[in-house]
Amino acid sequence: MSSWEVEVKFPRIKGFSWWVESDEYETLEEGLRAGMESEHPGGCRQELPLLAAEVQEALLLFPDPTELESSLRPVVPWASVSILRQILQLVNRHASEQH
């Protein structure tokens, strides 16, 4: 997948980069939780389901970790199977605990 296709297909994953790359938080999980909580409560219904859908689609389109990284990393440098799975798990946890 070309870089422009990644930007068009996965804008929410790309937009979530600040929360992943920020050095403001002690751990990656803290940054991811902060990103999700920044949408709470109103944006949860609008943004988090769409973010989860993009993450799930990326994981399904690129089941091979090397292929996922080579396709997404030119646009989303932090993209990896483990980080995307962690985002998906935290979105699901947030939805089940907060809503």
UniProtKB/TrEMBL annotation:
Source organism, top-level taxon: Bacteria
Protein's name according to its UniProt entry: CdiI immunity protein domain-containing protein
Species of provenance: Streptomyces carminius
